[in-house]
Write a structure and sequence with these properties.
Elements: H1 4-15, H2 18-21, H3 27-38, E1 41-45, E2 53-56, E3 61-65, H4 66-91, H5 102-105, H6 109-118, H7 140-163, H8 172-191, H9 197-214, H10 229-237, H11 247-260, H12 272-282
Parallel strand pairs: 1-3
Antiparallel strand pairs: 2-3
Length: 285
């Protein structure tokens, strides 16, 4: 089995630029206001997959687990396949209907299975999965672009903790509030000045992938350190501004369903927004 550190190290060397690249219209602003003032440090580690990205506001350091990077990449790989599938269905004027895509998505089920293993166990890259390549051309480029975008949201969330001078040792309710504030911080940087509809679609997909992966690390109803998934989705989704028939929104809804509600058969929906809203409602229970 390939060493997970060696597999993901080329990706780690590039992730420091992702917060600047995800919203290039705000890159200089972010660099001036956040990076120049904070001088934060990014380090890669192995050994604690349960805390894949962890900010220490006191030292202005963000520790990244290689297992966390690998898990995000697997979810991004799955999501690119799902996006292509749903785009084709929309092209055939079948979008907006409830369609059984389980036979197709079974092909990439091992990707999600490995991502779920990595949330609890730091294990090397399985021999039966293709090894991620940081410089390989299409289709790897599309997977990598989505991966780096999702990492940008996750890092901006952690940078938010640092920028907002959050404290690590706090009562549970204040910790939950800090998590929501960090989500809002990240979403604001990504969406506030987004230009084209195409850029917005990509960013909706990016943030959806990031949140889907993050939700693997806490109960759907929340915990002492993490707010309920429904609360986080509602907080971030208010920034989406996606069209009702957004393919990216539909991909995010499908992804969340596969990961957390695979045994539930959805009703018929006319739009992607209705499907996404139903998924958010499911997280309430």
């Amino acid at each position: 089995m390939p060493d997970i550190s060696a597999v993901m190290e080329p990706f780690f060397r590039k992730i420091g630029r992702t917060p600047l690249n995800i919203a290039p219209e705000r890159g200089k602003e972010l660099e001036r206001q956040i990076f120049e003032e904070l001088r934060w440090t990014l380090v890669a580690e192995r050994g604690d997959p349960t805390r894949p990205f962890l900010a220490d506001p006191a030292s202005k350091t963000i520790a990244v687990q290689y297992s966390g990077l690998a898990g995000v990449w697997c979810v991004a790989c799955y999501s690119v396949f799902l996006f292509d599938l749903l785009t084709e269905l929309h092209r055939q004027n079948l979008g907006g209907q409830t369609i059984d895509i389980r036979p197709q998505i079974e092909l990439l089920k091992p990707q999600l299975e490995y991502a779920e293993i990595l949330r609890l166990k730091d294990t090397d890259w399985p021999d039966h999965l293709p090894i991620p390549r940081c410089k390989a051309g299409d289709p790897w480029d599309r997977i990598n672009n989505l991966f780096f975008g999702a990492i940008a949201f996750i890092l901006l969330h952690e940078i938010g903790h640092v920028s907002l001078r959050h404290q690590i040792i706090l009562p549970a309710q204040m910790k939950l509030s800090q998590e929501i504030d960090a989500d809002a911080f990240a979403a604001n940087w990504i969406f506030e000045k987004v230009g084209t509809l195409e850029q917005r679609e990509f960013r909706v997909l990016v943030v959806g992938v990031a949140l889907a992966w993050l939700f693997l690390f806490s109960p759907k109803g929340g915990s002492a350190e993490h707010p309920p998934a429904k609360t986080r989705l509602e907080c971030v989704a208010v920034n989406f501004g996606a069209s009702a028939d957004s393919v990216s929104l539909e991909v995010v809804a499908h992804l969340l369903k596969v990961l957390f509600f695979s045994g539930i058969t959805p009703p018929q929906f006319k739009t992607s927004q209705e499907y996404f809203d139903w998924i958010v409602w499911l997280f309430r229970s």
